[in-house]
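Changelog excerpt

This revision adds worked examples to the README so contributors can see how folded entries look when concatenated. The first example is reproduced verbatim below.
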Amino acid sequence: MGNHTVTERRQRDEPSDGPVLTFDGVTAGYETPVVSDVSFSVAVGEIVGLLGPNGVGKSTLLKCAIGLLDPIEGAVRVGSTPVSSLSREDVAREVGYVPQNETAAFPRTVFQTVLMGRKPHFGSQPGERDRAVVATLLNRLGIDDLAMRDVNSLSGGQRQKVVLARALAQEPRGLVLDEPTSDLDIRHELEVLSLLRSEAPNGLGVVHAMHDLTLAARYSDYVVLLTNGGVYAQGPPEILTETAIAKVYGIDVSIHETDDGIVIAPETDTGETARIN
């Protein structure tokens, strides 16, 4: 099993202007560090999966990528520019963010919600191009028929597509998603992940935190497996071995090859397997 380095990946497919997002020796936390010395990068068209048990620092790292938290040491860069040196508006032009779940605090249509993603690009009022960008995205994501619906009236899967459209409306170079499918049923999970796969080639570098190891392996080009304190392993999805998962998650799993990709399932006391989340 080949464990390719970041340099080896970049020689194959990195554009001349370098990675979209770079985590360079990032140590981060609040009163004390949660995660230490994390380094990886995200190229245009690439989806990087950030994996590990609860509490290992996945959300903390992502907050550093969108400027909500400054690293204690190291830096997250967009292109060659540290995120910590950018204004909130500049970060919003460069990096889109999709949280785990979100409910509108007051009635707002789908079109109005996605138009909010254009705010970093217009002054006091949106223009014709801003509205055109929103209309194009709603069509591309297959939710144009929901344009005049109240976001609060939508299903969880529909609402998450709207939040993804709002992030894409920012026209960012990087897209950061914090467990974007955790509250969705399997059909909507697959729909959202398929949308990410189709959107990444449109000039995006994507990093997403996930719990479902099977889906992470299928929908990521590169994975970073975190354990308490830092990185346990990183590389192509093949690094998700039974040994690595047992070490990090403290459970025994079986990995099966299928026509659709690998399936990673925990072993039960009877030796049977079930889906891992």
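The second example, added in the same revision:
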Amino acid sequence: MPRPAVVLASGGLDSTTVLALARARGFAVHALTVDYGQRHRRELAAARRVARALGAVEHRVVAIDLRAFGGSALTSDAIRVPKGRPARAIGRGIPVTYVPARNTVLLALALAWAETLGARDLFLGVNAVDYSGYPDCRPGFLRAFQRLAGLATKAGVEGRARFRIHAPLLRMTKARIIRTGLALGVDYGLTHSCYDPAPGGRACGRCDACRLRLNGFAEAGAEDPVAYVPVRRAHLP
């Protein structure tokens, strides 16, 4: 019988690829999406589409309102999402789209569900190559959280479980992630990455997430199937 695993599924390109990888590795995938009050709420619908399409055993959406604290362009209307940043600026410093403690919160929720399921494996789509400078997308954070999981759970303290945090995209470029997903049959048209979509839902094409995504598709030699607002799209400078 396949072992259960909890996969953090945002509806974006990276987490969708991870969900496909977890299934390909033989896990019974339980997809967890967190509605934390994010500006780009269209990703919640994308997560539902992805979970259905990729055959998740179960998909849960948990609400926790990080807008109560703000501090990020993704959780506060008072902070603008940066647009048109050059490649050399993306990944340098911590941008205003960083949501304080987000991955800590998300992994804690995934850990809670994993313990109740009897699952020992948690998957997430963090990346330390083509990423936006977030501190909670780095290897040291993942190692620390894995140690915490053994100390903070009944299963860990009683020695019944050794939790494993899987971040299979950690060392991949965006182009390699896309090629991996396409080889697994992922339909990236189901996903949503844009931090600041237009009212009709089209991706802006200019925020960091869009630019990294577009550049990744260009380098992978593939066409991005999602709809963008009608502006000139180009390779990252």
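Reviewer comment on example two: The radius of gyration is 17 Å. The chain has one domain: 4-173.
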